[in-house]
Specification:
Layout (H helix, E strand, L loop, with lengths): L4 H33 L3 H5 L16 H29 L2 H47 L9 H13 L32 H5 L28 H44 L1
Length: about 270
């Protein structure tokens, strides 16, 4: 057993840190699973691919990728929390050494991932916009009960963000599955019950009966493009994830410091 008030403080602080690691890890796994299971239309819109053959959206999108990372990272934190708690309580120097080394490797990986995200940010945003336009042209059919997930996602986004089209309402002129080229989708109109539609009702009743036949800046959202709002929504979610990552990184740094201090104390007392 380590002796001295300072050494015991380090030991119990390290224990508390690792209890936090364990709880954060469990929460991350839970949130990640929830995101993967949740049928959120934004998950469909966040998928980016340069392959024109992709129609079924079976690749992971931004939200799904983040969920997978959360699950993997959460599992690692659970293991790290267990190692740190055991190493601190039992004062096992080799376990503390392994714990500190793994934490350092994880911290380096997180820094590298952060740099990669910063470098790829502009490319991702460009690819996202092009992908949304391309998939709208290829998959949008205007059927609110469509079997095409992307088509329903576009309608949902237009009602949720109160917008029309990715760049503008003229995007629908090039939609091969959209036959009524003389109008805009009903979801571009101001609806009588917006919340009802967003909660899963597959009907869109415009407040003004002249819309979508004669959409204006008053009875519809044709003057507002969807892309800036979709991008802003994804950026906000990313900021939340980045904030969590910074908080975890700070805990990791303190964990490394306290583990090294405790190892040094154990080594000095055994020496």
């Amino acid at each position: 057993m380590v002796a001295g008030c300072g050494a015991n403080c380090i030991k119990y602080i390290l224990f508390v840190f690792n209890v936090l690691f364990f709880l954060i890890g469990a929460a991350a796994v839970g949130i990640g699973i929830w995101v993967l299971v949740d049928k959120n239309y934004m998950s469909t819109l966040s998928k980016v691919t340069s392959d024109p053959a992709v129609q079924d959206y079976n690749i992971p999108g931004l939200l799904q990728s983040g969920a997978i990372i959360l699950i993997a990272g959460g599992a690692v934190l659970i293991v790290m929390g267990f190692l740190g708690c055991c190493g601190a309580v039992k004062e096992i120097k080799c376990m503390l050494c392994l714990y500190a080394t793994l934490l350092l490797l994880i911290l380096v990986a997180e820094i590298a991932a952060g740099i990669l995200v910063a470098v790829m940010k502009n490319k991702f945003e460009t690819e996202l916009q092009l992908n949304l336009v391309k998939n709208l042209e290829k998959n949008y059919d205007g059927n609110l009960k469509s079997g095409n997930t992307f088509s329903r996602a576009i309608d949902w986004a237009q009602v949720y963000f109160e917008c029309c089209g990715i760049n503008n309402y003229k995007d629908f002129e090039n939609a091969t599955g959209w036959t009524n080229k003389t109008t805009v989708p009903a979801t571009c109109c101001v609806l009588t019950d917006r919340d009802k539609f967003l909660n899963g009702d597959n009907t869109a009743t415009p407040k003004d009966s002249t819309c979508p036949g004669t959409p204006t800046g008053v009875n519809s959202y044709i003057q507002t493009s969807c892309y800036p709002k979709i991008r802003s929504w994804l950026v906000d979610k990313s900021v939340t994830v980045i904030g969590i990552a910074f908080a975890i990184a700070a805990l990791e740094i303190f964990g490394i410091i306290f583990a090294c201090c405790l190892m040094r104390t154990i080594g000095q007392q055994k020496g």
